[in-house]
Amino acid sequence: MMPFLLAEFANRETILPLYVTCVGSHEQKQLNRRNGYPAHQLFLCRGGSGVFRIEDQRDLVMTPGTVLLLPSGVPHAYYPNRSGEAWDLGFVAFGGKAAIPILELLERISMTVVEIPNFEALWDQLASLWHAISLNGEHAYWETSKQMYDMAVSLLEGITPSKKTVNGPSTVAQPNSALDAAIRLIHDHYNERLLLANVARAVGYSVQHFHRLFVASYGMTPQQYILQLRMRRSVQLFQDTPGIPVEKVAQQLGMETSYFIRIFKRTYGATPKQYMKK
């Protein structure tokens, strides 16, 4: 889970044509916005299912692998589809002068639920936005603007039918397919001892080239990404299992306890026990 983050960037409205206002993911509960939301919102459903109720429109059901784009100011409410079922919903809100033409290009997913083939890549981009803001604060406004644009392009790619040649589908790999594979590998093995050389080799890059590409795409090193992923998972473990010992959480993350506590405090400004008391 990616805890909700507000992106409070000074003068972003006058500087950036596209900017992020908030980003995150969590187990979504019922929420009612009778006056809509002041920014445009993109929702990604990764687990469970939920219902969006938009004024003067039929109810929309989101299931895993689907996205929904909601323009600003549209009254709406949303809630889990089934009582007791966890609804894993990711979201990013954005604005700026460039947002309007982007919304026009993405009209197909505006106020409707669409299943999208490159969902995992979009989810990784959502996580990258969260990390950029979490790690860099106000200094991230340039980077998150570029990443938000990249995410919009990925959305457009996902909803655009692929063209086939006379000889059949194109087999040319997408530019970021190796990085996508690396991210999946990291997410599958984040609690193990992951060597950068092994990850780079698995996706066909040298260590130096992979490191440069990763930093350019995600705004952080692979090691920083793994640590942030472990920290997010630790918070989820503390929330899902009240009273779980710190030592057990560290063990499940593949970290030595004292090192885990030190990284957790550096990330959240409090020790695990202090954080959970809050």
From TrEMBL:
It holds the Pfam family AraC_binding. GO terms for molecular function: DNA-binding transcription factor activity; sequence-specific DNA binding. Residues 180-278 form the HTH araC/xylS-type domain. InterPro entries: AraC-bd (IPR003313), Homeodomain-like_sf (IPR009057), HTH-like (IPR037923), HTH_AraC (IPR018060). Keywords: DNA-binding, Transcription, Transcription regulation. Transmembrane segments: none annotated. The keyword DNA-binding applies. It comes from the Bacteria. This is AraC family transcriptional regulator. It comes from Cohnella endophytica.
